[in-house]
Give the backbone structure.
Amino acid sequence: MVLALLLALATSAQAGAGISAPVDAVAEAQRPGADLRGVLEAGRRERRPVLLRVHGKDLPVTVVRLQEAAVEVRRPDHSRLLIRLDRIESAALL
């Protein structure tokens, strides 16, 4: 993360831009769960299946709705689940 911050600052200094934009981008990337939300949002937007790892179990799901602290998903057997984001260990697009 430190390397990314230094690279962002060096790039902004060369371009003559203020440092507020790169710092905001780095702060967004450091926010816990930012990349997880990105994968879930991409799965919802593209209607692609997502493989979630929850409590050591792999769940192939389709994202229905992304909330502030949870995600509503549909399983292949058409059941729906509401999973808290802090319980998801990893996510990948299939």
